[in-house]
Amino acid sequence: MALWKRFWLLGTAIWGVVCVLNAATILAFSDGEEAKAVQPLILAIAVPALAYALLWLYFRLRRR
Predict the structure, then answer these.
(1) Pseudo-torsion of CA 45, 47, 50, 52, nearest 10°?
(2) What does DSSP assign to residue 58?
(3) Strands (E), the chain
(4) d(CA 16, CA 31)
(5) What are the structural domain ranges in the chain?
(6) Sign of CA dihedral 43, 44, 45, 49
(7) Of 41, 10, 11, nearest to 24 (Cα)?
(8) Could you count the other beta carbons within 10 Å of the beta carbon of residue 23?
(9) How confident is the model at residue 31 (pLDDT cuts 50, 70, 90)?
(10) Half-sphere exposure of 59 toward its Cβ, with a 13 Å CA cutoff?
(11) Computed from CA positions of residues 47, 52, 55, 60, in that sequence, does the dihedral angle turn out positive or negative?
């Protein structure tokens, strides 16, 4: 596995844990504002996917 993929996996794991903790904090301490907890969960998926796509494209173009 390429080194950048290993670092991406590490960053994704840390990012996911932080986003889940953020959403859990919002759910635990806000009264009736559960919709605010959805945004960190969406970002937990979208940001690593976008980062992977950009890194993949960068290294693919750089290889040529």
Answers:
(1) -80
(2) H
(3) none
(4) 24
(5) 3-63
(6) positive
(7) 41
(8) 20
(9) confident
(10) 9
(11) negative
